[in-house]
Amino acid sequence: VVDVSSERDLEQLISSRPARGLIARGQGHSYGDAAQRAGGLVAELTGLKRMVHFDPVVGTVTVEAGMTLGELMRAVVPSGWLPAVLPGTRFVTIGAAIASDVHGRNQHHDGSFADHVLGMRICTPSGIVDVTPDTSPELFWATAGGMGLTGVIVQATLALTRIETAQMRTVSNRAGDLDQVLALLTDADRQYRYSAAWIDGLARGRALGRGVVIRGNHATRAEMAELSDELSFSPLPSVSAPRPLTYVTRHMSRMVNETVFRRSAAQRTRYESLHAFFHTHDRLDLFRLFAPEGCVEYHFVVPFGEAEVVRQTIERMSRTHQPPFISIIKRFGSQNRGPLSFPMAGWMGVCDFRPTAELPRLLHELDELVAQAGGRIFLAKDARTRPDALRAMYPKLEDWREIRGRADPDGVMRSDLAERLGLV
Ligand SMILES: Cc1cc2nc3c(=O)[nH]c(=O)nc-3n(C[C@H](O)[C@H](O)[C@H](O)COP(=O)(O)OP(=O)(O)OC[C@H]3O[C@@H](n4cnc5c(N)ncnc54)[C@H](O)[C@@H]3O)c2cc1C
Prior knowledge:
Layout lengths: L1 E2 L3 H9 L6 E4 L15 E4 L6 E5 L4 E5 L4 H8 L4 E3 L10 H6 L7 H4 L6 E8 L2 E5 L5 H7 L8 E11 L4 E9 L2 H14 L2 E6 L11 E8 L31 H14 L3 E7 H5 L7 H4 L6 E7 L4 H13 L6 E7 L13 E8 L5 H14 L3 E2 L9 H7 L3 H11 L8 H5 L4
Parallel strand pairs: 1-3, 2-3
Antiparallel strand pairs: 4-5, 5-9, 6-9, 7-8, 7-9, 10-12, 10-13, 11-12, 11-15, 14-16, 14-17, 15-16
Helix pairs in contact: 5-13, 10-11, 11-12
The structure holds flavin-adenine dinucleotide (FAD).
């Protein structure tokens, strides 16, 4: 792992053409092997995190790729701006947010991260290039969601979202089964910028897929009139989990889920800070929580006509010895032009499991179900899918390979994920 602190360092590193290749790493928070290169070089970019330019009138910012979304929020929220897309943790770098084309709870309304990138500078093995969606659409979109395999993003210019306050107005509804969850989420599209549902992975029978649907919009200044500083933003530090989840039994999970479900009102409106709404995960030290065996997350999307796949997925999961302890469903809006970009119009599902001996077989079955339905899994979370499944899930893979080949003719950019899946 090599720390990179300047564009020049990066150029030299890439032009040295390391024998087993090179890949960029931000915070290293992708779940699988996307930011790893066994025997090769990993260029760690967290030292490259200057804000190059911020225009608080228009709401655009140019930053170096190693800056995290949390650092960007601290810099721009007090001026009334927010990164347009926020994933479930603020410890994600801008470079990785583009390379994984990350999504948030507003995907149905605002698209994914790359949709708000006005331009970027990429250090490719063929040289440094400045690209925009208009001037170099092919390389731009092959890099958005391209998992670092077209080159290293050095800096990017982003369009921000205007906010009046650093508070969210949220509405949560308890939903008794999967149909109700899907109906509430569909209804939310029109009125709410943000929406997602928590699903009780342990519920079965008529209650299968029951959950709590949470929707939200930015609170206005008029709503927050009593606050002295309505744009103050100070995320709380993470706290250590009291004990690893290993000690949590199925019985305890059932009790927790039952309590969460019963305590949620039929409908409840409240105000929450940006931090509480977007980054609840960051309050807990997840690494300790999942110690020592870790956690497996299955993250997929299927087209709207295929809601039955969501039902079957939940059903199969709930039947396993270790059903998921966290499951989320969300409606995605249309997909962008990135051939490897994950979001597509349809139902997205995320399930977190403790690893068990039976899990690999179940996940391969789910891959088949998802691929047959015309859906796909998220590469930023992958550590185990097979090349044939991936080809079925990403039909524009060959177009992407061709564009990548022009940016990196000698195949310098490679990660363990890329080799495992035959991407390069
Ligand atoms: C708790 C948690 C919640 C999450 N929630 C969401 C969510 O809601 N939505 C979502 O979309 N994702 C989510 N993720 C996934 C996360 O957004 C991605 O894995 C993201 O890529 C991690 O950022 P990172 O800086 O740690 O990247 P890394 O893991 O370091 O790298 C990820 C990929 O980006 C590439 N990369 C990194 N920097 C650059 C660069 N400068 N140039 C080119 N390529 C680069 C790497 O090569 C690698 O392929 C979540 C992850 C966690 C841990």
